[in-house]
Amino acid sequence: MAQKEKIPVYSIGNLLQEPIPQAALQAEYFSAYLEKHYADLHRPHRHSFYHMVLFTSGEGTHTIDFDRFEVKPFQVYCMVPGQVHSWHFTAAVTGYVANFPDHFFRDFLFNPYYLERFPFFSGSSAESVFQLPAPLHEKVPALFEELIALAPDATASPDMNRVLLLQILLLMGNAIAGHPAKAIPEQKKMILHNLRRLIDVHYRSIRLPKEYADLLYITPNHLNALCRDLLGQTAGELIRNRVLLEAKRLLINENKTVAEIAYELNFQDNSYFNRFFKKYEGVTPDEFRKQFLK
């Protein structure tokens, strides 16, 4: 069977339209970025890189994994590779954009999971968007200006880019951590990070919380208690929501049939997938697709 067209997945090389070095960072004014790529950005698409946008003015909406947000000044959007999103602007927008690959800090910090310490890079759309606190309205744009000014200098060390970007992430992370709902022990946060990572890898084939608890070397009761405490939902709901999210991502691809999507998500048959989807979304997969396209 011929390969069906999928949701577009853009790399930094696609956007720059040229070969890129391993340590590539793309930093631009958002207005210039939008002018070059609007034909692609207003349709649902994915990135193979981390994508961060700070708006300083403008109006419109941004949809991340089917959650819609109103664009506001000094609002930050942070997305991880694989999330599906699209932009719809109703007025001219200004701001900054930074794109960087998942290995950007790996050798620099000797920690492949460093970015997971930041809640805005959790992969959850609800945590991806936040308002930049007033004390950072000058500091963060100034760092973006330095990033953009450094970009044309081919002789500059990639570590300069890393240091500037890391300052931005730490400033934002500290601002969010400064107003926590409650302090979360590092051990609990690590278990949650590991659970989310495992679900992302195995959600097609592993659907039972007990199996994830075994992979994490904890009891199912401990896992459920932790998920309820930190997320307000059970481990089973977290797994189910990941399956539903991928189903919706696949359904917006018109060239895939519902039966093909059911098979790809490892459902026993198409009717079981239809019942599952309608139970939790309130509509059938076909109805969801028609509503989205409309």
From TrEMBL:
<keyword id="KW-0805">Transcription regulation</keyword>
<dbReference type="GO" id="GO:0003700">
    <property type="term" value="F:DNA-binding transcription factor activity"/>
</dbReference>
<dbReference type="InterPro" id="IPR009057">
    <property type="entry name" value="Homeodomain-like_sf"/>
</dbReference>
<dbReference type="Pfam" id="PF02311">
    <property type="entry name" value="AraC_binding"/>
</dbReference>
<dbReference type="InterPro" id="IPR003313">
    <property type="entry name" value="AraC-bd"/>
</dbReference>
<feature type="domain" description="HTH araC/xylS-type">
    <location>
        <begin position="193"/>
        <end position="291"/>
    </location>
</feature>
<dbReference type="InterPro" id="IPR014710">
    <property type="entry name" value="RmlC-like_jellyroll"/>
</dbReference>
<dbReference type="InterPro" id="IPR037923">
    <property type="entry name" value="HTH-like"/>
</dbReference>
<keyword id="KW-0804">Transcription</keyword>
<keyword id="KW-0238">DNA-binding</keyword>
<dbReference type="Pfam" id="PF12833">
    <property type="entry name" value="HTH_18"/>
</dbReference>
<protein>
    <submittedName>
        <fullName>AraC-type DNA-binding protein</fullName>
    </submittedName>
</protein>
<dbReference type="InterPro" id="IPR020449">
    <property type="entry name" value="Tscrpt_reg_AraC-type_HTH"/>
</dbReference>
<dbReference type="InterPro" id="IPR018060">
    <property type="entry name" value="HTH_AraC"/>
</dbReference>
<dbReference type="GO" id="GO:0043565">
    <property type="term" value="F:sequence-specific DNA binding"/>
</dbReference>
